[in-house]
Specification:
The protein has 152 residues and is mainly alpha-helical. 74% of the residues lie in helices and 0% in strands. The chain is built from 8 helices and no strands. Helix 3 runs antiparallel to helix 4 and helix 6 packs antiparallel against helix 7. The longest helix has 22 residues. The chain is elongated. The mean pLDDT is 89.
Amino acid sequence: MGLGFFLLPAGGVLSLTGVFLGNSTLIRLSWLMWLAGVLLLIAQRYRRPPDPRQLAAAAAAGDARAVRGLRTLALDARSQGRPDAAERMLRQAVKAGDVESMWELGRLVQEREGLSAAEPWFRMAAGRGHPVARRLFRAGGELNPDGTSPPP
């Protein structure tokens, strides 16, 4: 969403406050906030999305910001009904060591193939400290119902 969505209502509140108090400085400032908010929203709409190939290359080189960007693109693809693209990007983020991507890849595999197929991804995430994945392996958890499967 971004700053534009914050500036519009904040400008409205400032405008109403300026009208209520009879303060023309607040009203002028509110117009500036509205203008900045609208311009930011327009700029965001026409901004080019990042290239997944560039993000993957940067992630492989160890850029943590690129890894997060790759995961975000993967989750967007998943929500748009493109699970194959999401899986491809999540696998690249997992190669870069992103624990959250391990968890998300497990969730994606679970939706497609079931819990047993997703277990390696959940186990990998749990072994690296993902708190929700760790709960799956505690005694009585979904992947350790009888307490015989050792946690990672």
